Amino acid sequence: MLSMFKSIPTHMDYKGQKLAEQIFQGIILVSAVIGFIYGLFIQQFGWTVYIMLAGFSVSCLLTLPPWPMYRKNPLSWQPAVPETSGENRDKPQENQSQKKKKHK
């Protein structure tokens, strides 16, 4: 059962994050305007809040899960550099430590 949860993709690419943010803000803005106008028309502030909460719920449902529309532009990662012997990694570079900066 644990392997079933590990197979669910949990990432978004950068363009997908931008799209999700735009959708989220658009839905919130539209629901705020509709809620304000409807609440003003019927003189009930509670309906404004309900409509805003409904818009928030819909926007969360559409933007929080990593839907496939948010994963269309994956990043191309550079290949991994093979590890060399530990001698170079542990020894500090002598050239850089011996250089002295001159201030003018």
Overview features:
Spc1/SPCS1, elongated, 61% helix, mainly alpha, 104 residues, 0% strand
Quick one: how many beta strands? 0
Mind summarizing the main beta sheet? none
Low-confidence runs:
none
Portion of residues within helices: 55-70%
Number of helices: 5
Secondary-structure element sequence? Answer: HHHHH
Would you write up a description of this structure?
The chain is mainly alpha-helical. Helices cover 61% and strands 0% of the residues. It has five helices and no strands. It has helices at residues 2-6, 14-42, 45-63, 86-90, 94-98. The longest helix is centred in the N-terminal third of the chain and has 29 residues, at 14-42. It is elongated. The model has no long low-confidence stretch (mean pLDDT 85).
Strand and helix map with partners:
Elements lengths: L1 H5 L7 H29 L2 H19 L22 H5 L3 H5 L6
Helix pairs in contact: 2-3
